[in-house]
Amino acid sequence: MLDFSMTIGGRQVAGRDVFAVHNPASGAVVGHAPNATLADLDAAVAAARAAFPGWAALPDDQRAAACAALAGKLGEHAEEIARLITLEQGKPLGALGSRFEMGGAQAWAGHTASLSLPMAVIQDDSAGRIELHHKPIGVVGSITPWNWPVMIAIWHILPALRAGNCVVIKPSPYTPLSTLRTVAILNTLLPPGVLNVVTSDDRLANIGAAMATHEGIGKIVFTGSCATGTRVMQGAAPTMKRLTLELGGNDAGIVLPDCDPAAIAEGLFWGAFINNGQTCAAMKRLYVHDSLHDAVCDALVAYARTVPMGDGIVEGMALGPINNRMQFDKVARLVADAARDGTVLLGGAPDDGLFFPVTLVADLPADAPLIVEEQFGPALPIIRYHDVEEAVAAANDSDNGLGGSVWSRDADRARDIALRLDCGSVWVNRHGAIQPNAPFGGVKRSGFGREFGEQGLAEMTELQTVFC
Ligand code: NAD
After folding, report:
1. CA nearest to 145, candidates 167, 169, 171
2. pLDDT tens for each residue of 87-121
């Protein structure tokens, strides 16, 4: 049994109560995580506040070196943590699964360690000198989802620490074990209190909600659903907390008529089905020109049939189960509805347990729930269009605006259309390919703020303008 403790002020804290974490591939209990009380959260915030002056006062190059060492530590423990991710999240070890996630975590940590925000002089003349300084905020509260548990934790933790803040992280109750273990490992290199973790299934208290309102936390970085993001924003208002909200998406891909269906099928497939579609910036609606609609459908079906799905801990799988029952039921509802109004090209009926087959549905009306709602699972609607203006309008007809993509042999034309999509990131001839030096975040109800690169690091700071 994999039972882990919280790390609070550098100590391992078992908690008064625990909750079970299940393997979505089998339903078996993987291990237990502590169920934090509000007193545990207070202790974690107090430890972070106590550690903050020392951590913030470290010379910048020493903090950079400490963060680089954290990246190295993640590399040393990558296989151990990858197995934990697979056991509690369900994604396969190989392919674009948990080893890939750990590679990403290490790459993001390493790149973030190398970033800096030097003081800028914006005026220096006979009238005076004006300097712009980035200063850490204090305690950053991180709240993470279950889809990429460790990579997203690293996206929150590393820039916060690099900028001189201390952190309290709360992972999803579906995937707490990999974060508990990661934080314990990173703590071997950090002063006590700089990085703390609390876990909860919300039975004793809603710890995420308590973090949003907590007087001792200066900023929340939240990745999760739009509904919870709204609650975080409401909770944060009275204390005027700084916020980065990375929320849901309903990304559209647009295939222009000059594409070769066979050449783009693999890219389209993984753009939509990476991590079983349980990815914020996965393609969730695919608009294909009438002239090649049927050929793209055929090519996607043919490629999808080659992708093995099964228990992720067995080498050779490329897709695993859906992570949890609530998400499974949502996908099942959307697909059952789509099957009534559209043509199911592949999949459709749930398999055993939480396994849901790759599902492709065509001929749906524009207002079908599978098109309008974020499915966050392995089901893709393919929508025929006749005129690119119609496709751009449909892509933009969404409350979300996380990502989008345009597919064409004419890169300039694709870029021109890409610029017209209302979303924070847009790709040409690929989808969802994020990287640590390129700012990422949403527009409209997909949230606000940016992660990654200098812009992401700056969001972990307050600006101070000094008139010398
Ligand atoms: P969720 O909103 O249900 O949960 C996210 C986190 O919030 C969990 O840790 C949860 O315990 C916590 N939480 C629950 N109630 C809370 C409250 N009242 N206040 C504060 N925190 C609370 O999301 P999820 O189901 O874990 O993740 C899936 C969603 O996340 C999808 O919508 C997906 O698109 C989105 N997501 C977005 C990004 C991005 O970068 N934009 C990345 C990954 C996932």
Report:
1. 171
2. 999 999 999 999 999 999 999 999 999 999 999 99
Looking at the structure, tell me whether residues 132 and 266 fall in a common domain. Answer: no
Residue 437 lies in a domain: no
Which residues have any ligand 1 atom within 6 Å of their CB?
143-147, 170-173, 206, 208-209, 212, 223-225, 228, 231-232, 246-249, 280, 374, 376, 402, 442, 447
Residue 52: inside a domain: yes
CATH number of 269's domain: 3.40.309.10
Q: 327 by DSSP, 3-state: which?
A: helix
CB 346, CB 269: distance < 8 Å: no
Burial status of residue 52 (CB atoms within 10 A of its CB: 0-12, 13-18, 19 or more): buried
DSSP reduced 3-state for 309 = strand
Q: How confident is the model at residue 351 (pLDDT cuts 50, 70, 90)?
A: confident
Please choose from 172, 278, 328 the residue to mutate so as to test ligand 1's pocket, defined by most ligand atoms within 8 A of CB.
172
The boundaries of the domain holding residue 330 are 251-428
Residues whose CB is less than 8 angstroms from the CB of residue 468 and which lie 6 or more positions away in sequence, other chains included: 128, 129, 130, 131
Q: Is residue 435 part of a domain?
A: no
CATH number of the domain within which 35 lies: 3.40.605.10
- Tally of structural domains, the chain: 2
Nearest Cα to 342, choosing from 409, 285, 299? Answer: 285
- What distance in angstroms lies between residue 192's CA and the mean position of ligand 1's atoms? 28
Tokens (6 digits) for 180: 């508990």
Structure-block tokens of residue 335: 């697909």
Same structural domain, 280 and 226? no
Same domain flag for 178 and 314: no
Write the pLDDT tens digit of every residue in 363-389.
999 999 999 999 999 999 999 999 999
Give the rounded distance of the alpha carbon of 292 from its chain centre. Answer: 33
Encode pLDDT of 245-260 as tens digits: 999 999 999 999 999 9
Residues noted as catalytic: 246
Instruction: Give Cα 379 to chain centroid, integer Å.
Output: 19
- Together in a domain, 193 and 110: yes
Mutate to test the pocket of ligand 1, among 152, 225, 373 (most ligand atoms within 8 A of CB): 225
Q: How many residues does the chain have?
A: 468
Mean pLDDT of 49-63: 98
Q: Say whether both 18 and 143 belong to one domain.
A: yes
What is d(CA 224, CA 143) in angstroms, rounded to the nearest whole number?
Answer: 8
- Of the candidates 92, 107, 428, 429, the one whose C-alpha atom is nearest the C-alpha of residue 278 is 92
| Cβ–Cβ under 8 Å, residues 157 and 169 | yes
Token code pair at residue 181: 């273990």
Co-location of 225 and 106 in the same domain:
yes
Question: Coil, strand, or helix at residue 256?
Answer: coil
Calculate helix-pair angle for 98-114, 78-89, nearest 10 degrees: 130
